[in-house]
Amino acid sequence: MKPRQAVQGEQEYVLGTNRDELLRLGLQHQLWARYAADAWERAGFGPGKRLLDVGCGPGYASLDLAARVGTRGQVHAIDISERFISHLQSQTQLRGLTHITASVGQVERLNLSGGAFDGAYARWVLCFVKNPAAVVSGVARALKTGGAFVIQDYFNYEGVMIAPNCEVFRCFFKMVAQSWRMRGGNPEIGAEIPNLLTRHGFEAWEIKPLLRIARLGSPLWKWPETFFHNFLLLVI
Hints:
Elements: H1 19-43, E1 50-54, H2 60-69, E2 74-79, H3 82-95, E3 100-104, E4 117-123, H4 132-142, E5 143-152, H5 167-182, H6 193-199, H7 219-235
Parallel strand pairs: 1-2, 1-4, 2-3, 4-5
Helix pairs in contact: 1-7
């Protein structure tokens, strides 16, 4: 088979930035939103806060954060994808939200005012970048003293299981993890995050494992199904 031709800009993301991936990320956010909200609550992300969404993608979490901080607060979202940032900007305009700003930029080269933010959020970002320490360092500079950095990321990506056991399934996830490593990512970054944080002046005050089980036909089951579809189309 001939390799799938990537649309300009898609190679910024492992799975591209096309419409299918935009929809997949929307479903992903819905399925994980309550876990993010719980973490935001514990971190004190509330009305009037200034928050940074690191590697925001299409901005689904940014919009939720904006609702949480209210018009007295501010959310700044940053992502490498022009297409995703344009999507977020169009959504803020449609909804009349003036307290969200979004910009294209590399999260490993954050150039933000020191001590400008009360908190920061990153979900499945550190696992994809070549230099996660640079991301943590940039966030540390941008946060006020006592600011919180909420991170959701993978600990043992290849540990995902299916019952009954299936060798093809295991091989697929090994292939996915290898594709991340080839781009400089680390699908087991979770094991390194506590040390990364302490090295840059943070206190790792809570580590909470998230383990979920999906039934065939459930919305959670649909999430990896859409991932399989997008990833396989990208590589064949």
